[in-house]
Design a protein that fits this description.
There is one protein chain. Residues 1-21 and 522-551 have low confidence and may be disordered. By secondary structure, the protein is α+β, with helices and mostly antiparallel strands. Helices cover 33% and strands 19% of the residues. The strands form 5 sheets. The chain has a 7-stranded antiparallel sheet. A 5-stranded antiparallel sheet has the order 5-6-10-8-9. It has a 4-stranded mixed sheet with strand order 1-2-4-3, with helices on one face. Helix 1 runs antiparallel to helix 19 (525-550) and helix 10 packs antiparallel against helix 15. The chain starts with a helix and ends with a helix.
Amino acid sequence: MFSSKPMIFLILICGNVFEAVNAYCMPTEKCWPAPYLWGSLESKLVNGKLHNLTDLSTYDKVCKAAGTNAYKLEEEGEGRCMQYHDCSKKGCNSTSSWNIPMYSVEAKSEDDIIEAIKFANTHNIYVTVKTSGHNYAGASMGYGSLLIWMKNFKKFGTITTNMDVCSDTYDALLKVGGGQVWLEAYKAVGENYHLIGGGGLTVSAAGGWLMGGGLSASARLYGMGVDQVVQFEVITAGGEKMTANKCTNADLFWALRGGGGGTFGVVTAVWYKLHQKKAFCEFYMTVTDFNEKTGYNPSTIYKWIDYLVENAPQMSTKWGGYWGFSFALFYYEGTEVDVKNDDFYKGAAALGNVGVNLKCSDSYYKLRGLPENINTDPSGSNEYNIASRLIPKDFVKSNPDKMKEIFKWMVVNGFTTFNYILGGAMQDVATDATAVHPAMRTALFQMETFSEPLIQKLRDEFPNSGAGFNHAAKNETDWENQFWGSNLDRLKSLKTKFDPDNRFNCWHCVGYKEVPADKREANGSAKSLKLSTTFFILMAFPLLVRSKKNY
């Protein structure tokens, strides 16, 4: 029989070993896998490829050479290219050190992903996940990480009719693969149905856009992206394939719908609800009262602000889209006759000193010019300082004068914004039904700014209103509460359940742990921890043996 004292001592030492192992192994440490071990990983990949990303000069040669072409940036660079180049650096700060992963696994099958995760678990390397690199905060980057690059993952695009999921029958569902982007998803659906998707055609259809909530021009009519999903296929941190829906792994299904991408697992497939094809119109309004020396005439800008604040809370859910202080790009579900009879349209068109362009089609797909027109938002900028804030609908309704005052201050002190109009069907979903910040369900606007004075003004005026996750500032203060609000604690608990070792670790994601600065340098501090722990184990073992002999 063993003595209880040596046993307790050994348990305590094992606890220290566990803590040491959970401090990620970094390239500057002796624990980092030797080249032959990386070669072993490559040999186990079934269809995928292993890429060494340590040649930092490649970024400028390949990624910056792609210019503003978002398609090239998602396809080239073996996973290292970001759509906004400052996010190749730590903290998306162009003056800081590189933040590019050491290796990428170009995954083409589930087995490739599983092998990558198994390797990372064996060698205690943290994992990042990326499709096209649109994250404004650089969450898919990470020095010392193993990147799972999904862009060339196997394709689906299958439409299934009358499909049963959890005892519910759906008229039509679209299955998209973990690496497919919205251009591929829209083309798979074509004119047959209406799909709620992203505006940028190179944005992942099964990654960050969706798991960050998924805002859309028609979200007011049908709900957010997370409201369209009925099922996921996902590979967890343990290398296990799982199906997640409302009756199987329901807690994971909940977390994936708004808890952020790259942290609960690698999504390999998503089933989206499809809606009946309907006619849509695009309403593009711009302020035309412009002087090249003084800029926009404030009186016209202010008329537009007054009109929007007074009418947006009551506008039909058929409307959705984007707006700024000098423009509106709205989409209306209906025909040209329908939209011209709508009160909001008539009032906006009659503001004076505005130009109105209206075009209509029998489907949103054709309205966007697909499949021939594949133009999408240009990217490739060296700096991109976006930030967001949610504006509660109740505030706008109850305090219209104050809302106008805030907006007019912003016009004078920075001007440039790009904003979503929210509400409608988004508010029909319970605040705890998905993992998105509950404030998203009660907001009327998501404001997006590009200068520090404007976002700070909104933070000061709306300190607890939340930020839109997918468009949040890369340095957002109190980021956990601003991204998830009252859903945060449950998300943290589920992170522990599905990823207890925090294998998936990404900037400002649930469970994010910053790699200490001393582990980014070869100073030996982490190695000392491992050596000292081993020493204590060796010292403890003879005590345990002597104890066994004595009893």
